[in-house]
Structures are given as C-alpha cells and as structure tokens.
Amino acid sequence: MAENSTRPAVPPLFAVGDRVRIRNAHPPGHVRTPYYCRGHIGVVERLCGAFPNPEELAYNRSGLPALPLYRVRFLSRELWPDYSGRPNDVVEVETFQHWLESAE
Amino acid sequence: MNKPVDRADTLGYYRRMQAAVEELLILRGVMTQGELDRQVTDMDARTYKRGAQVVARAWVDPAYKARLLADPRTATAELGIDIGPTHLIVVEDTPKVHNVIVCTLCSCYPRMLLGVPPHWYKSREYRSRVVREPRAVLAEFGTALPADVDIRVHDSTADMRYMVLPLRPAGTEHVGEAALAELVTRDSLIGVGLPNAS
Fold it and tell me: ipTM of the predicted structure?
C-alpha cells in the first residue's frame, strides 16, 4: 500500500494461493493470532500490505520494520473436526508473516 | 438483555480509569476538552446509515460496486464519506456465499462506516461462537440462509476492517436508491442479518 511505502518493511515471502501453516507457538505477551488457527493449514487469500508489528506496538515500541499482513483462509471443518456446517464454510484470519510457515 | 455491563453509571473500575485518562489527556495538554468533546460528538454522529448509503449505491450502480470492492476508501469518498485511516475491505454476498464479520480477539469494527458497535458484537458469546457455529448464531438473530449457501466468517484480527455488501432484496428492481438505503439494516452490514424486504 502506497501509504506504507515510506517506512522500513520486511518483504513478503508468500503469495496469493500459497498453502501456509500458522505456527503452533504460545509466546507470552500481546499477540493477535487466535488460538483456534494455530498449527492449522490455510491458503493465502490476499496480501493486505505491511503494518507495524502489534506485538511491539503494545509495549510502546515502533513495531518497525513493518511486517507483511496476510488474510489466510481456513476450512472451518479443518479448524474444528466436529464442525457441523457445510464442507466449504471458511474462516478468514489476518495474520502477520512471522506467524506463517510454508505448507507447500 | 440485562448484563452487568449494560447497567450505566456505576462508577466501576473501567469508568474510573476512563475518567482518569480523560483528565490526564487534558491536564497534560495532549488535547483540549473541546477537542475531546468534538471527537465524541463526531463518533456519536456516525451510524450504520453511512454504510447503508454505500450499499444502496452499489446496488444501483455496477460500476460503483466494482470501485467499492477494489478501492473502498476512494469509493466511499465519492459519497462524501471520509473513512479516515481505516483500511476497509468490503466483502460481497452472492447467492452461494454469505459473509459474516467478527473480531474474536477484541471488538474491531468499522466505526467510520457503521458507528459504535452493538453490545453483543463485543460479547464473548458472539465472538467465540460465530466462528464455530455461525448458522446457530445467525438463527438466534432470526436469520436463516438457503441450504446451499456457504458461510465465510471474517475474523478482524489485525489492521483491516470489514463491511458486508449484502444481496439486494428480491423484487426491488424498481425501488430507488434512497428507498433501498432504508432497507439496509445494521445487522445486514455485519452479516448476522439480511436487508429488509421492500
């Protein structure tokens, strides 16, 4: 995004359509990755641009360099094995790059 | 509903903290009382009617709809709506896909377009259940989807904010833009409801 282009940013590692796994990590402090998707595999739906890391901003630090932010799409039935809805129901979650690893 | 959080004017922990922060902002010269009051007034003036106006235009003007989906900031500005620093994503319902918005981590909400969120949007009940059993939650709002419609839940976990572009109600082909905007409900912009029939 143009407005983000003037501050230092980490280049994106993933592209739309890539299969990615959310790290199954449990660091202390402020994080913005829901528990329900940790360890699960999804597909990159879009790149949202680069934004300061909220895990740093929460402690009054700069959060720079900005990190690529992705929207990752998960099948609901893969998040919850007993999910009772339709097979193609999905949940889409915004996740920063340092929470992602390739699942190709 | 009569939850403890709905009872106003008890000077609980958060009310006292809010009052303390407000006093500090003014005493330290971060902002004046007038600026603070103006922000509160502006926030109260923003309602979901802004979102409804955007949706009605998208329903009557396919080119506008395309611009809205591609670049919500510019498209809302066309209607004189300034969404400020909000990074908005508009998600379009189709006959096969229904979209629902939640913030499971806290209460992120597109206030610049929809105003102040309803209490239930911030409740643990809504936040934890709508990702897990969306049809059951929609049913509690009185919303039933056709059996062949998939649900796409958008968890607003970071910097983006979301608004649903609901399906235009059947039989409104001859309804004008202003009247269409009246059919758009707040809940239909979050995805727990549908627009009213004409």
Answer: 0.94
